[in-house]
Design goal:
mainly beta, Lipocalin, ten-stranded antiparallel β-barrel, 1 helix
Length: 148
C-alpha cells in the first residue's frame, strides 16, 4: 500500500464532505454532525469555509484562514480560536493544536484541541481531535473527510 503525501494547501483547495461525532471521556456519543467544506487556495496557504449541521438541527459556520510557513509548518486563524492554531505536517499526517472558545451549556468555554489528521488512499482523511480543559480530557472528535 502506498502512503499518500499530504499537502494541506492542495488537499483543502477543493470541496469536501466530513462526517463526525463527539465522544465524551466516558465513551458516550454526545453529538453527531456533517460538515460541508469549501476550500480555496491563496497565495500563501488556503481558506476553509465550513458549514456544520448537527444531529439536533443546529447549524454553524466557521472560516479558517491558514498560512503555510514552510518546512511543513502552518498557522491558522478562526474567529473562535484564541490566538492562532499551529500545525506541523509530515508525510501523510498533520498535527494541529489550538485553544478554542467552544459553546458548552449556553456559554463559550476555552478548551484545547489537539488534532491528528491522516490522509489515506482515495482522498479520505481521518481526523482525531482530543478536547481538553485545564489538562483534563473532555472527549474526542472523530471525523472523516472525503472529496465531493
Amino acid at each position: 500500500m502506498a502512503i499518500p503525501r499530504f499537502l494541506p494547501e492542495e488537499y483543502f483547495a477543493q470541496r469536501l464532505d466530513a462526517y463526525g461525532v463527539f465522544v465524551d471521556r466516558f465513551g458516550t456519543i454526545r453529538r453527531q454532525f456533517n460538515v460541508e467544506v469549501k476550500g480555496t487556495r491563496t497565495s500563501d496557504g488556503f481558506i476553509l469555509d465550513e458549514d456544520f449541521l448537527y444531529d439536533d438541527g443546529e447549524r454553524e459556520t466557521r472560516r479558517w484562514v491558514v498560512t503555510a510557513l514552510g518546512e511543513g509548518r502552518y498557522r491558522g486563524e478562526c474567529d473562535d480560536v484564541v490566538g492562532v492554531a499551529v500545525g506541523k505536517c509530515t508525510d501523510n499526517m498533520l498535527s494541529w493544536r489550538y485553544d478554542f472558545r467552544l459553546v458548552m451549556y449556553g456559554r463559550k468555554v476555552k478548551v484545547r484541541f489537539d488534532d491528528v489528521m491522516v490522509l489515506q488512499g482515495g482522498g479520505v482523511m481521518v481526523n482525531r481531535a482530543t478536547v481538553s480543559k485545564a489538562g483534563l480530557r473532555l472527549g474526542e472528535v472523530l471525523l472523516t473527510f472525503r472529496p465531493i
